[in-house]
Amino acid sequence: MTPLSMHEELPFDEATTPPHVSTGDLPVAADVRALVTEAYERYRHHGSGDVADYIPALAQADPDLFGIAVVGPWGRSFEIGDVTAGFSIQSVSKPFVFALVCDTLGYEAARVRLGVNSTGFPFDSLMAIELNAQRTMNPLVNAGALATTSLVPGATAGEKWEAIRQRLSAFAGRELLVDDEVYASESATNLRNQGIAHLLRSYDRLFFDPDETTDLYTRQCSLEVTVHDLAVMAATLANGGVNPVTQETVIGPGVCRRVLAVMASAGLYELSGDWLYQIGVPGKSGVSGGIITVAPGKGGLATYSPPLDEAGNSVRGQLATKYLSERLGLNLFASAPSDGPPVQF
Predict the structure, then answer these.
(1) Which helix (H) or strand (E) element contains residue 114?
(2) The whole model's pTM is what?
């Protein structure tokens, strides 16, 4: 029998014959609330890490800020700490813009143009572009993210921007706006991203004007969110693309699971393997200190804390996420032996 090609479409229509899905439930509400509180108290005074300073506006962030939010597929939230503090979404925007492009082009066409493999290099690596024939590698590193933004629907930069803002707002369940101070600060210091965009254009791997693409990407990263917003956005991915608060279908389940696959393999950049090994669920970090985690069928977890490790990931956020993944039963790879009788096939 001929094996199924890795790139061959499955022999059913997902729209009419959905495959079986992995589902589950969070613990009862009182237990979730107690565990979220416990994680917050356990790590709120953890002092390691440094606030990002290569974007001047981000260097002003209070290193003591810390918030945790969990949103289940029914829309109920459990939150503690600095959950109303606004901060720029930064790289946490990448999987959601990728979802928009997959929804527009189709997830197979998006895979061909953008790639879905990890680079093994830092998020802004030029070496990864030069050493890999596909150049972009995946939509969650800067090269792939710029290419993704260049593929957003719209003939002009204005039309593309409205598509980005509207779709990310739909994920969050409210209108998101740009933090103008962060946008101005980042625009004045984004020379590396400008260089990446022009390098990609030289390889025919960018699909819109490189300078306008870089500006769109900078605006995208400057959208202001709260940790609650991020948890709702993560819960939308956990809920098959339906926002659990507004009940709006933001993306289809076929797109949703492809986005989660890329998050699992590349969401924490060169530490993605460690993340998956220890935490076991798709995640995505941002340099302002936000992290989202998606447990399919169970809900979304978000943390916010500005001090970062050397790879650009929130230190407190990683600690709290690992703690809650274990205690809330989020790890996709965790299982227990069946206690039922053996079945003869």
Answers:
(1) helix 107-114
(2) 0.89
